[in-house]
Amino acid sequence: MIILLILILVYFIFWDRIRFSSTNPVLNIPTNELQIEDMENTEENSDNVSPSVTMHNNYAEVTNNGETKKLSRTCPHAGCNVNYDNTQQKFVCPCHGAKFDLDGTVLRGPATDNLAPY
């Protein structure tokens, strides 16, 4: 209990120093040097846009660089429905681990064929 009171007391004593410091406490950079990227020119930054993938029961709708296509979710190896892994930006078969890119091209087996267009 005493330790908890000491921690609370220290927090309140040093809170103003942390809050009103001219240095970012996490990055240890003076706050006047922090800059936010200018995102006004969307044409220049259009390559940085993440693809959009919408999963449906039997197909996946992929929008990438302004182009939309539909791919079958059926894995050509064993017929399981593939899922989309947003962090890897790949389709992954939950049955045996086959991986496909956003175009449906097989990246890793055991599947040997690409995902079919829907």
Walkthrough of the structure:
The protein has two domains: 2-33, no CATH class; 51-108, Rieske [2Fe-2S] iron-sulphur domain (Rieske Iron-sulfur Protein), CATH 2.102.10. The protein has one helix and nine strands, in the order H-E-E-E-E-E-E-E-E-E. The protein has one helix at 2-19, and strands at residues 23-24, 29-30, 52-55, 59-64, 67-72, 83-85, 90-92, 99-100, 106-108. The strands form three sheets. The chain has a four-stranded antiparallel beta sheet with strand order 6-7-8-9, with no helix packed on it. The chain has a three-stranded antiparallel beta sheet with strand order 3-4-5, with no helix packed on it. A two-stranded antiparallel ribbon has the order 1-2. Strand 1 and strand 2 (29-30) form a beta hairpin. The longest helix has 18 residues, at 2-19. The termini are far apart.
Instruction: Count every beta strand, where a strand is a DSSP E run of 2 or more residues.
Output: 9
Give the strand order of the largest sheet, numbering strands 1, 2, ... along the chain.
6-7-8-9
| CATH level-4 homologous superfamily of the largest domain | Rieske [2Fe-2S] iron-sulphur domain
**Main sheet specs:** 4 strands, antiparallel
CATH topology of the largest domain: Rieske Iron-sulfur Protein
User: Runs with pLDDT <50, length 5+?
Assistant: 19-45
Helix-residue proportion: 10-25%
